[in-house]
Amino acid sequence: MRRIAIINQKGGVGKTTTTANLGAAFARAGKRVLLVDLDPQGHLALHFGHEVSQEQSSIYDVLTASTPIADAIVNLRKNITIVPADIDLAGAEAELVTVMGREVLLREAIDAYGGNDDVMLIDCPPSLGVLTINALVSCDEVVIPLQAHFFGLQGLGKLLETVMLVKQRINPKLRVTGIVLCMHEASTRLATEVTEDISKFLDGARGTDAPWSDAKLFETTIRRNIKLAESSSFGQTVFDYAPKSNGALDYANLAAEIFEDIEKP
Amino acid sequence: MRRIAIINQKGGVGKTTTTANLGAAFARAGKRVLLVDLDPQGHLALHFGHEVSQEQSSIYDVLTASTPIADAIVNLRKNITIVPADIDLAGAEAELVTVMGREVLLREAIDAYGGNDDVMLIDCPPSLGVLTINALVSCDEVVIPLQAHFFGLQGLGKLLETVMLVKQRINPKLRVTGIVLCMHEASTRLATEVTEDISKFLDGARGTDAPWSDAKLFETTIRRNIKLAESSSFGQTVFDYAPKSNGALDYANLAAEIFEDIEKP
Ligand SMILES: Nc1ncnc2c1ncn2[C@@H]1O[C@H](COP(=O)(O)OP(=O)(O)OP(=O)(O)O)[C@@H](O)[C@H]1O
Ligand SMILES: Nc1ncnc2c1ncn2[C@@H]1O[C@H](COP(=O)(O)OP(=O)(O)OP(=O)(O)O)[C@@H](O)[C@H]1O
Ligand SMILES: [Mg+2]
Ligand SMILES: [Mg+2]
Known about the structure:
2 copies of one chain form a homodimer.
Chain A: E1 2-6, H1 15-28, E2 33-37, H2 59-64, H3 69-72, E3 74-77, E4 80-83, H4 92-95, H5 105-112, E5 119-123, H6 130-138, E6 141-146, H7 150-169, E7 175-181, H8 189-205, E8 216-217, H9 226-233, H10 238-241, H11 246-258
Parallel strand pairs in A: 1-5, 1-6, 2-4, 2-5, 6-7, 7-8
Antiparallel strand pairs in A: 3-4
Helix pairs in contact in A: 1-11, 5-6
The structure holds adenosine-5'-triphosphate (2 copies) and magnesium ion (2 copies).
């Protein structure tokens, strides 16, 4: 199972939209997909029209009460299951402060889960706290959604520092697979300049031993497209809601860049 | 001094852009403005071209080492001072878990500060953790930047619940002054529907004793405008960078809605 963490501590750059629609693209191409929501806002399940009830086990119980993943898992669509979040997770940062091995709790739960998925995607909150660290420890790959604005660059450095620390101290297999430009407005000068800066930065890391030394700036960019925002309001992925839109095309193309055996749309 | 917290746990909705440019609009209208950055990302100072150095005291030292605000304050422009954040603040959530009275640390520091400002704006991170709670405890007013997307509504309920709790338990003067639609694309159906839902929700609260019972949905909306994203990349507010843009006009209009004695542009 490929284990991919979807991470960026900058808010609102498309992490959840990417986890949901990339996951849906993988599933449509025949991959079995496990989604994990690590964001207390709990929006990931809503992208599929699934409202999490209080009685249902969530990722919070997995992390704090040793609930097995199998007890928290929900079937969303053909080929897609999810371990949803709920608002209790908001307290996890504080609650886990004194728990020994708090960075490996998720990895233990996933390793114990006997699922036969082809790929797991973990949606992270906009922070580099204990939840995001759990994702970095549990995964081999990181995909970074990024909005080509000034602060996109600012945050990237800090994020990569954290990836490096986790790799050095806890998870030697961790690598950055790539950066995907989201909410992209290619016609703006700002986007062009920021994209260029990211490209140069990645080129400069080639051949080094940094965990991003072979990270791609994905050719596919996820263009700004209102259908992507609308689809979640109907509890649908963009493939259900607007299958011919740029949003659907872009995520299908991104899926093909991530899995060699997925055909371009 | 009016004390206004700029809050929304949803990421990337325009909290920092609003704190910076609304603050600048107030200052241009002659108000003395104190900005406080509670976001570990530390972007607020960058909107004014100020890079925080490690040796400089920041809001982190104010909260954890009883550094007086006067020692951490930086002069940004005429009429604008800031207590900047730095990345150490990322650890504050965990560090403050066991500190007694951790929700009132900021209020104590502000009450002890003898400044003669007319208005204080506090920029919050995308979470409802201890930093945001400190802002709610320190302020009398809340302004909520909100993107008229599906998740804008989702998060609002949770945010208002938190405001209610803080009001009931710690800060009886707390009120929601208003909600400002940011990154607004008025021509989209999604924005129209979400705006209507927010409007109905606020109407339904009139005459109740909820702290949002007289919250306005500001008439001014901050329209999507690339100048607002570009200005920060030059270390400028939109009033320096593009004073004739819609971005500048919108924040000037918002300032006039918030202070009766500020003239409309
Ligand atoms: N390409 C796009 N075009 C238009 N709207 C988009 C696009 N991608 C995401 N959105 C919308 O922008 C908002 C923010 O996206 P999203 O919630 O995926 O970001 P996020 O990084 O997960 O945010 P957070 O940091 O709060 O977790 C959502 O309302 C979403 O529907
Ligand atoms: N009205 C607007 N039009 C175009 N771009 C905007 C607008 N408002 C903000 N932006 C840009 O959108 C991005 C997100 O805005 P901002 O950083 O202010 O949000 P935030 O709520 O403070 O995010 P976070 O949750 O990460 O703190 C920034 O790159 C900013 O420059
Ligand atoms: Mg998200
Ligand atoms: Mg911000």
